[in-house]
UniProtKB/TrEMBL annotation, chain B:
<keyword id="KW-1133">Transmembrane helix</keyword>
<dbReference type="GO" id="GO:0022857">
    <property type="term" value="F:transmembrane transporter activity"/>
</dbReference>
<feature type="transmembrane region" description="Helical">
    <location>
        <begin position="312"/>
        <end position="331"/>
    </location>
</feature>
<feature type="region of interest" description="Disordered">
    <location>
        <begin position="1"/>
        <end position="27"/>
    </location>
</feature>
<feature type="transmembrane region" description="Helical">
    <location>
        <begin position="33"/>
        <end position="53"/>
    </location>
</feature>
<dbReference type="GO" id="GO:0005886">
    <property type="term" value="C:plasma membrane"/>
</dbReference>
<feature type="transmembrane region" description="Helical">
    <location>
        <begin position="115"/>
        <end position="134"/>
    </location>
</feature>
<dbReference type="Pfam" id="PF02653">
    <property type="entry name" value="BPD_transp_2"/>
</dbReference>
<feature type="transmembrane region" description="Helical">
    <location>
        <begin position="65"/>
        <end position="84"/>
    </location>
</feature>
<keyword id="KW-0812">Transmembrane</keyword>
<dbReference type="InterPro" id="IPR001851">
    <property type="entry name" value="ABC_transp_permease"/>
</dbReference>
<feature type="transmembrane region" description="Helical">
    <location>
        <begin position="267"/>
        <end position="300"/>
    </location>
</feature>
<keyword id="KW-1003">Cell membrane</keyword>
<protein>
    <submittedName>
        <fullName>ABC transporter permease</fullName>
    </submittedName>
</protein>
<feature type="transmembrane region" description="Helical">
    <location>
        <begin position="140"/>
        <end position="161"/>
    </location>
</feature>
<feature type="transmembrane region" description="Helical">
    <location>
        <begin position="182"/>
        <end position="203"/>
    </location>
</feature>
<feature type="compositionally biased region" description="Low complexity">
    <location>
        <begin position="1"/>
        <end position="24"/>
    </location>
</feature>
Amino acid sequence: MTSSPTVPDTEKGTAVSPRRTAPAHPAPQALVRVRGVTKSFGGAAALKGVDLDLYPGEIHALMGMNGAGKSTFVHVLSGVHQPDSGTLTLGGHEHTGLTVRRARRLGISSVPQRRELAPGLTVAENVLLGDLPTRYGTVHWKAVREQAGRALSGLGIDIDPDRIAGTLTVAEQTMVEVAREVRRGGRVLILDEPTACLSARDADRVRDLVRTLRDEGVAVVYISHYIDEVMSLADRITVLRDGALVRSAPAAELDAAALVRGMVGRDVVSRRPARPAPRSESGLAVRSLSQGRALRDFSVDVRKGEIVAVLGPAGDGQSRLFDLLSGRQRPDSGEIRVDGRPVPPGRIDASLAGGLRCVTGDRRTLGLVQGLTVDENLMLAGDRFARRRLHRVRHLARRAAPVRDTYGVVALTGNPPVGTLSGGNQQKVLLGKWLETAPVACFLEDPTNGVDVAAMADIHTLVDDLAARGVAVLLASSSPEEVMRLADRVVVVSAGRTVAEHDIDAITRDQLVTTALGGQPQ
Amino acid sequence: MSLKTPSAAPDVAAGPPGDAGRPRSTYRRLPHIPHGGLLLVLVLVAVFTAVQADAFTSSQNLLNVLRQVSVTAVIAAGLTLLMTAGGMDFSMGSNAAVTLCVAAQLLARGWSTPAVVVVSLVLATLIGLVNGLVVTYTRVAPFVATLASAMLLDGVALLVLDGMSVTIGDKMSALGNDEVAGVPYLTIVALLVLALTGVTMRFTTFGRDAFAMGGNEHVARLSGIDVNGRKLALYALAGVLAGLAGLMLLSRLGAAAPNTAGLQTQLTAVAAVVIGGTSLAGGHGTVTGTVIGVVLLGVVGNALNLLQVNSNYQLVVTGGVLLVAAIVNEFQRKSSPGH
């Protein structure tokens, strides 16, 4: 191993550090060895000569911006795409023409970003899917429960095998999928953003599971945008940029700043700019809004030009706020006023007519029409407000071009269906769609959900500009950093209740985190 | 985060945007012509028939085919728009049957033709509107609701006729049988309807709303589209076109007999639309595809007659051609998303 000249250990092209030997890795024999993999689609190169080694019992984080080639690499590894050139060696044998089926038989399996369980079946059936134990030609249900229970408890997962998969939380779905892949003999497990959209506690459970996998000797490929998480979890980090390998090193040798620089190619600083002071008149006033147990007696007053953040664990109340403010659902009680005028509850048209724009955190189901083009999605709401009758592609493109520019939407081929764009670009389309429609007040739900650091900085700037234009911005977020960066005031919620309210100047990040985690009413 | 989202467009975050649209190597050639595979099937069937039976290319026969497909085409046009918006209407053929029977009865009782046309179109629109109301406000799946109304309307048509055939003499025969510049009036009507539908889908906000609703109804609603109003309008439109088809059929046949039109006609139209590449789930659809689908089905039916295929085999062969066309179409669609 020490003599291998191919381990890319430092900045590309420079000398190889011979330091990486046995102590850090109990099993120095690489399980999977990838050399010089290239892959292009049409004219565009998605991967340019990427080398990678995966060791058993190691968590190998793969980092990079949206579009850096992470997913393509994972697809090559799991047999979805065949590389144009390069080799993939597994257990001493070189494999060409890897298909999904063969990769799986060799023990390479992946848990995709979108969980794929059969929602109507039980957890046990899902774990044993395709391999149900039978007796006398019929399913042996007792064995199904036993085997699934063993597979789950072996990984320390505490989920009742009799539950229906459709009732699981996202974190639990991830765990069940992991258990299924491990039970099938997965030696290399690829996890694509397993903690995206999870609350802190659920994310911890998933991370614990990943550590258990490592201790069991599985080679874990871990894709994540969260730098802190990667730093604390990974043993080794590989950074990709524009399809090329930038750096691959043990996590201990890297720090957050170096990672960001590696991913973006420059330093990214997202710092609070000086914004004009909020005006005195109220832009959005919410009075004792309640619905069921998700939201109880929620009040907030956002002045024009002010950004007020609602901080809480992901999934706590924020998406319900979206439903109520956008008019998709009717609150049990409470009142919403925009610009001093009451907005009738439970009516989308009334909410829009009042000047309230709600940007969802779930862009796939509630944000964009995936099959329609970028331009059409950008103008979907604006054109309806303008009561346009005719639709002409060229005029549409002319109207959409400035929005694309302002919001930095990048599409390589003209005007593709929005579903083919990267997450960061889709999020920018979603923001552009709503924020360019003369809003009086905006509700933004997790606007940087699943986007890379550079796009995140761009989006922060867009939100700053929005407030500077005199729009009242209510921001739902689960990230204290984002709140500190953007908000003027913060409302901390827990289990649907407001537990604290602070001016951002009067609180430090650590105090904020403590309040958010502690959730003690004051 | 939903379980197993059945989405045709995976987020190929890492791949360049060309990734999703890339054809598999085997079918690399087909996607360059829109509906190329389908056209190929149509040409093959036509050439084969022309070689085997001289009568196929005679102008008399071609006119006949055109008249026959015109009625289906009008129904299919409305259905294309409706299905693109994520709706479905199985009752259009039966709506046409009711319209046809009512119009025949009224004409036989001496009503003036224009009055009958107006009354039957209004009736058909109302029937469509009722479908729309049920689908929009009860959340019963369109498939179920309109299948029920199809059966119901088939029965109503039989009641209106009361087991008899009603002839209307030559009151509407000009529409059904005459031609202008060698093109039957019926075909001109059908072409007008198809062209209007095509223009609506491509160049009007109403049409784009249909794509948005079919693609993702929640997003459409949140974007300020009056989804309920649009649905009612679309079902009413399907109704009025079904009524038009009924009148066209009546003018061609000159009489209303039990079991004319009905669910069977509708199934043919649905097949034509689906062959033409319109998505059953909504969000995709083209009138061009529908036209090819309608013509393909008409030509196959005609070819089987001309080739004197035993009538017992005709359904078998039609079904087979449908299957082949649908498979060819699916290969092509997999490799070229979006419209």
